[in-house]
Amino acid sequence: MTTLDNVFHLNDAHTTIKRELIAALTTFVSLSYILFVNPNILHAAGIDKGAAFTVTAVSIAIGCFIMGFVANYPIALAPTLGSAAFFAYNVCGEMKINWQTALAAVLVASVLFILITVLKLREKVVDAIPQDLKYAISAGIGLFIAFIGLQNGKLIVNSDSSLVTLGKFNSPAVWITLFGLTLTVILMAMNVPGSIFIGMVVTAIFGILIGQVEVPKAIISTAPSIAPTFGQAVFHLKDINTPQLFMVVLTFLLVTFFDTAGTLIGMTEQAGMVDQDGKIPRIGRAFVSDSLAMVEGAVLGTAPLGTSVESSAGIAMGGRTGLTAVFVGIFFLISMIFSPLLAVIPTTVTAPALIIVGVLMAGNLKKINWDKFEIAFPAFLTVIGMPLTYSISDGLALGMIAYPITMIAAKQAKKVSPMMYVLLVVFVIFFLITNM
Q: What is the mean pLDDT of residues 344-354?
C-alpha cells in the first residue's frame, strides 16, 4: 500500500485500492464493447479483424498505463468511435485511400498533437474556457453518453418521421435494459457500493437465463497476431504527399484535439479535480499522455485513441487516481485471452450504466449561471449540441463560437480571454473543414 500510495497518492485523493479496483472493473466492463465494435469498423476499411481485436486491447492497455503513471488520472484511453468511423467510412471508403496510408495520416496527426501539447497550447486553451462552459461540457457529455445508453439498450430507436422514437417493449433487448436499469437505480438509491458494476453482472446473468445473451462456448483463446497492421503507419509515411492527405491529417488533428479536450474537462469536473480557480491540475501531463497514446495506437494499427467517456462510469464508482487507469489496462491485457467470456457483455448490459452515469454528470447543470443569458445560451448550445450532433467536439464548438458573440453583445467583451476569440475563429474553420 505504501508503494502504491507514493506513486498514485491514494490517501491524498481519499481513495483505496479496493475502490480503485471496483472503479476500474466498472470502466472496463462499460468499455469492453470497444473490443468488438472497433475491429468491425476497422475491418470495413480492409484491416484484418483478428489483428484489429488484439491491437485494440494492446493499444488501450498501453494508453491506460501512460495515463495512470504519467498523469495519475482515473481515465482510460481508447480508440474513439467517431475517429474510427471517419477513418473507415470517409478516408478509406469515400476517399478511396488504403488503410495503410490512412494509418500514416493518423501517425502524422499524432506527432503534431505532441508538438502542440509540448508547446502547452492545449493547456492554454483549456484554461481559457470559462468555468460555466466547463460545467456545460461535463453535463453535455452526460446527456451524450445517456443517449448512447438509451440507443444501445434499444429504448430509443431510429424513426423516419421524427429521427428518434421510443423502442418496442416486446423486444427482448428492451427487457434486458429495463431489468438492468431498474436494478441499478434501486441499488444506487440504496447507496450500495459498486452498484453499477453489480447491476451489469446481474443483468448479464438475467440475459443468459432468458436466452438472449449467448453463453460463452469457451473460456480462453489465443490472441490473434498484430503482424498485419504493426508498423504499417511508419512504412507508409512517404504516401502523405498530396493536398487531400494533408487535409485528412488536419481533420484527424482537429477532431481529436477538441474531442479529447472536451472529454478531459468533463471527466475531471466529474471527479472533482478542478480547483476553485477552474484550473485542472496536471492537465499538461494528461494531454501528453493522450498524445503519446495516439502515436502508439497508430504504430500498432488503429484509429486515434482519445479520452474514453466510459471512464465516467468508473469515476462515478469512486475512481480518483491513475491506479484505476492502470487496472483498466491490465484488464484489457487479460481480455485478449478471455475474449469468449466478453460475449456475455453486449451493449444492452452496459446500457443502464451509461444512462445512470449520464444522470450523475447532468448534476453540473445546476452550477451554470442560467440567470445571465450571455452565459446561458452558449452553455445550452454546448449541452444540447453533444447528444443532438452525436459528437462531443461539435457540441463544444457550438458553445465556443456562441460565447464570445453573446459576451460582446452583453458589453462584457473584456471578460473574454484573447484565447476565446482565437477559438471562435478556429472552431468556425473546424466546422468548414469537417462539415463541407
A: 82
